[in-house]
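Notebook B, p. 112. Complex prediction, attempt 2.
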Amino acid sequence: MTLPEPSRRDTRLDPYIDAYAERTHGLTVSAVRALFAVANRPEVVSLAGGMPNIADLPREALGRAVDRLIAERGTQAMQYGSGQGEPFMREKIVEVMAEEHIRAHADDVVVTCGSQQALDLVTRVFCDPGDVVLAEAPSYVGALGTFHAYQCQVVHVAMDDAGLDPVALRGALVSLKAAGKRVKFLYTIPNFQNPTGVTQTVERRRAILEIAREHDLLIIEDNPYGLLTLGPAPLPALRSMDADNVIYLGSFSKIFAPGFRVGWVLAPHAVREKLVLTQEAATLCPPVFSQFAIATYLDEFDWRSQITVFRDMYRARRDAMLAGLEEHMLEGTTWTQPDGGFFVWVTLPEGLDSQAMLPRAVTARVAYTPGTAFYADGMGSRNMRLSFCFPTPERILEGTRRLGEVLVQEQEMHRTFGLGTTTTRHHDLTAGPAPDIS
Amino acid sequence: MNDNPTHGPIVVLAGGLSHERDVSLRSGRRVAQALRDQGKEVVESDLTPDLIDLLRSLENPVAFPVLHGGVGEDGGLQQVLTLLDVAYVGSDPGACRRSFNKAVGGPLAAQAGLARPRMAALPHDMFRELGAAALVVALGERIGFPMIVKPARGGSALGCTKVDAVEELPSAMVAAYSYGDLAVVEEFIEGTEVAVTVVELDGAPVALPAVEIRPNSGIYDYTARYTAGETRFIVPATLGDEAAAACAELAVAAHRVLGLRDLSRADIVVRQEGTPVLIETNVAPGMTETSLLPQAVEAAGWDFGLLCAQLVDNAWARHLA
């Protein structure tokens, strides 16, 4: 076969490559993220994602309720709605927040497309490029992505088993002020933090609020897991302790189901006005049908008992993970002991690199999220986040067993090649799993 | 091209459990859509326990494996298809094994007289049993710096590291062994990086125009491969006529030496003076939106869907013969 004489084509396969905004810089395909593609295969025990287990919801009854909703109120439920969210939904949200002793008025609630959009709106309203946002070290990967999108500078503040360290917070504020930096807010997840599973003690909460008042620091409290306590009653939310300095983000994703994409912001009045207008510019209105469906669920089902069902289910999984770690982890490995939420944070012996080790784990049919995903500054290579929310307890045990073997192999490899204890930094903005990874 | 197929549904196989699953799924979707655009009946399938039942339930199926890495590329899947007497596009199991394993394919090509970098392939056990320090020094002396360290069985540049000095070698070895227990250490060849697709339609392998690869970062890594905009591609490559012809000849020779069939892609570096060196040959080239083979096909003035359909027809005819 003869080929025609080709004309030369010179392309980068993206005609818009020189047109993108600066904030999209770094949004590239990631080899680490690509490894998660195997996580949803049944052969793999995925401890990587953060998908809630919603199999225990009364799905048949929910289906009938949704049928009725469409038949009886479909013309409203499938119509455009309020940019602030439907009034009945906001009333219900106030009821849900009361479970954590938050007193609020429905007028100060803005319904959002998941609490991820709540954070996006808050950041959009407050942050200009270059502004500093404080966040725990480590912090939620999705929040770091939002802050990056608005070109914020994330400064991590140290935390320990009692949560964010107030001394480190004060130190960061003082040094940033001295450097002429403008700190817009502190982003914190006080309950069962993602990724560490750590809960701020009440004493720490008081101290953090005190420092915030001293330094005119706004606090963004993200609390998706608060009601999923596996131990004693939930600790008081920061918002319940200070109504003036705290913007509160909530979500139905963990206490009901994430597919509805309904979350909310509780903000002081002046901020709320700006959030509503910003919401209208972004999406016109939060998902109306989802608000009707969730309100129906809250009205017609015993949602508080359902949370108890969730707690019992997650407790068994958390216990399995802690037992598995105890049995299978390499000497020198440590991990947190979460009282709720979805995650355990593991610290590996010095020198081991969880991001570099992930291919070996995938080969061994176990997946986790490398700690580097939760730092904006390249740290976290000695850490990994393990999720106990989705796999069954038996699978979690098997996953920790496989992980233990992977660690042994990796350590042996390091010894063979005489690798030192230097901590490697990785800068990969997209190293976390996609939301549909189990 | 023959557009009178007598085969049944085309089963595009993509996914698998390899490190390149994500790439394979992208490639599979692209091939499946291209075949559907040709009016073909296409079934897309992952490698799952249901696959054998699926293949048996179809009348005269033709499999189109688009698996990268693991059993999809190392001949395992092709062996199963042969056992099941299912027609399939691509090389036979033996050729897949030879080509996929760089520790086998590279030396075979070199023995056949094709220009290849100096290389050594070592399992990690060797380092453990003989001591890494001495072996690392020996590798440096034998291969020289800079060098490339990569997993022997893998693709998409996963686990590959360019090493400029002996002290960087241990961590590069560990990175490669994260993907498998056999690693290849090769002399780094400085020059113009090109990929040459080889296609067999009329019984003889034909080289398509070389695609020149110029990654923005200087390194054609995973990100540069699969993020549009991160790499500049020039087709045909900016080579002199003589060098271009030498690349085509080298790619076809590698295809023949390894006993490949239907299609392959040779990765080549052309030294400044115009001599091409074969880096590796791919038995299951990427078919994604940013992959090299579809660009070469387009540059040749062909239609990607027609080419895929023709390869299916050829596989069916081969099966009947």
